[in-house]
Structure formats: C-alpha cells, structure tokens
C-alpha cells in the first residue's frame, strides 16, 4: 500500500521512510520502529493507519539495516543517536506530515516507544503521543515534561519496561499536573507484534489498537 520516500530533516539532510498515504488534509501519524529496524511488520502498521484514515510515515532510523537477531538489534539500538533521531529524523517526518495537512501524532513500540516520549517532549509540531512499552532515560526525555495528550500501553510481564518503571512514569506525569491515559496488559513485552508468535497476544493487541484509535480520534 505504501512506498519508500525521501524526506528532509531540519538540518537539510535527506533521509528515507515508509509512507502510507490516506489523502491530503488527513491527520498524520509517525510510526517509530522497534529495535529490529524498519521491517515489514512496522510497514504493515503504517498501512493499517492509512486504511484507518491517517497519513503514516515510518522513518528508517537504521538507514536500511534490519535484523531478527536480538544481539544485533541491541547493537543497532545502542549505536543509535537518540537525540539526533528525535530532533532530526522524527521531527523531519512530523514536518513532512504537517505539510500534508492536519495535526500529527507520534507512536512507537519498544525503542520506538521510548523515542515517542522523546518526540513528545522535544518536537514542537507533535500534537499527541502513543507509547507502547518503552520509556527513555529521564536525562534524554523526562515524561513529566510532556505537555500534549499522551497515551501509553505497557505489559505486566516485561523485564525492560517494568511495571515499576511504568508506575514511576505515571507518578512523575501526575506530579507535574499531567493526565496521561495509561493501560497495563497481562501480556509480555512485544504483545502487539503479530510476527512474534512467542509474545503476540491478539486480544491485547486489538484492545490497545481500539483504545489508540479512540484517543487519536479525539486528539488529532
């Protein structure tokens, strides 16, 4: 449904992303990859957003590199310039969608969830954020600094984005006067990814999608 395109970053450099178009004047959503890279599953999420009426752009943060191996994925993620990804690649994607017309939100999974929080804090053109099981270091982006509508989906069986970390995010945001929509699922980290049979939970994935659609419909 979509296709790879070139778009400009704020620094003027060109980068690539997968763009699934719903039409001019439609709201936009930037889809941020997991640590595996811009793979078919993430492109499929962008296509799903387009079918739901959103112009969706998934920036290729690894510049063409994709893996199915956890060790290699960890190497790629730890080598990523997170501030550069937020301020340049993701902001460039947001600005590209703003030019299509309509408000723009950002969402992502795992590493992309952490970068969603980063974008919600640092990218001024973002109107809403939806995070799936990812929290960045507070030194990069403090969730308490999010001033836009924010929704989060987290797994109770998660040894990275742990329930305690989610509690800390909620407490920090509420202490700052924010009112995030946070949902916790009796599922494993990665429960939305239908390509991962070891962790995929169809019921939780559908419930989180429905909640996200309602939230984005109100926020964008």
Provide the residue-averaged pLDDT: 96
What Rg is obtained from the alpha carbons, in whole angstroms? 16 Å
Indicate the CATH class: Alpha Beta
Report the order of strands and helices. EEEHEHHEHEEHEH
Could you name the ranges where pLDDT drops below 50 across 5 or more consecutive residues? none
CATH fold name = Rossmann fold
- Biggest sheet: strands, sense, closure? 8 strands, mixed
What structural class do you assign from the helix and strand content? alpha/beta
For the record, give the distance between the C-alpha atoms at the N and C termini, rounded to a whole number: 23 Å
Write down the overall geometry: globular
Supply the CATH superfamily name: Alpha/Beta hydrolase fold, catalytic domain
Structure, explained:
- The longest helix is centred in the last third of the chain and has 18 residues, at 202-219.
- The chain has an eight-stranded mixed sheet, with helices on both faces.
- The chain has a single domain (3-219), classed as Rossmann fold.
- It has helices spanning 40-51, 70-78, 82-98, 111-122, 163-175, 202-219, and strands spanning 3-8, 14-20, 28-32, 55-59, 104-109, 128-132, 150-157, 181-188.
- With 220 residues, it is α/β, with parallel strands linked by helices.
- The chain is built from six helices and eight strands.
- The mean pLDDT is 96.
- α3 (82-98) packs across α4 (111-122).
Question: What is the strand and helix layout of this fold?
Answer:
Blueprint: E1 3-8, E2 14-20, E3 28-32, H1 40-51, E4 55-59, H2 70-78, H3 82-98, E5 104-109, H4 111-122, E6 128-132, E7 150-157, H5 163-175, E8 181-188, H6 202-219
Parallel strand pairs: 3-4, 3-5, 5-6, 6-7, 7-8
Antiparallel strand pairs: 1-2, 2-4
Helix pairs in contact: 3-4
